[in-house]
Amino acid sequence: MKELIHTFSTLGARLAAFDSDQRLQAVARRAVEENPWFSPGEIRRAVLAIAEDMLEEERLVKWLAAYDLPVGEPRRVLVIMAGNIPLVGFFDLLCVTISGNRCLVKPAAKDHILMECIIGLLHEIDPQIAVELYDGHSPIDALIATGSDNAERYFRTHYAKTPALLRGTRQSVAILDSHETEEQLAGLADDIWAYSGLGCRNVSLVFLPRGAELKLRMPAMNPKFHNNYRSTRALLTMEQRPFVDLGQAVAVEGDGFPTALSMLVIKRYSSLGEVEEWLRKHDRELQCVVTECVRHNRRAGFGQAQSPALTDYPDERDVIAWLIDLDRNFRK
What we know:
It is globular, with a radius of gyration of 21 Å. The protein has eleven helices and twelve strands. The protein has a seven-stranded mixed β-sheet, sandwiched between helices. Strands 3-2-1-4-5 form a five-stranded parallel β-sheet, with helices on both faces. It is an alpha/beta fold and 332 residues long. Helix 6 links the parallel strand 2 and strand 3 (131-133).
């Protein structure tokens, strides 16, 4: 395991030099050309977050110390990745590989350039590392897949006889109590609109006390997001539904998650007990909860939704523990 930690920390050092690495800069430009939803700034942010929040050697050592690793015989684990934000599938690759298994990667079409670059860098650091692009027909022992609810249902049927960790659609919320500082509200704006709001950790529903006003400053948005905003605003106007125009997004009052990317839902509450009850009822739909006034096991501070730690497992499913159990089940 020490060798793998060294390999990934070396990758982290390489990614941390993103701003001065001409090869990585060229890859980022190609990725933006192929997927206009990505921007150079978003790719830089994702790359540096991986380098700083996941691949520092001390963080890796501390994270893995909680587990009984390495596992036994390496298993061939297919990872089918989402592509909604840059390198969103990297964490699963890290978990599978650093636990001593072989990672077969099926990158999303929208994010294959960046992911293929990462795999190439890993092989430059360690030519024997157990990571490869999936050829589409090799046998697998297990599956980790992330996608929409429809995709999850497909994976569940298609791989019915394969041990699988599947993730469907999740969304995130924020809870305000009107005592937030300007700095916290600036952080909330990032939690909402970073990566064009496309991630499962992006806040799309905000709880607000009755009578309170939400004051947010929007950052400059991707042109494709702006087109979505124009269409959403036009549809709401035609349907005569009330909304607040935020400049590049709309806010509507409601009880559930929004139906459009550029729409933010505001849910009013009279007591935090109401909010806690709503969270309990919708727990399976939630990825994280941004707040300082309610306790929650997936709570994130303002401005931290897009900076998950190694222990902030998607859907609260511990991937390393799942891989360890997978090996135990194979040995029974």
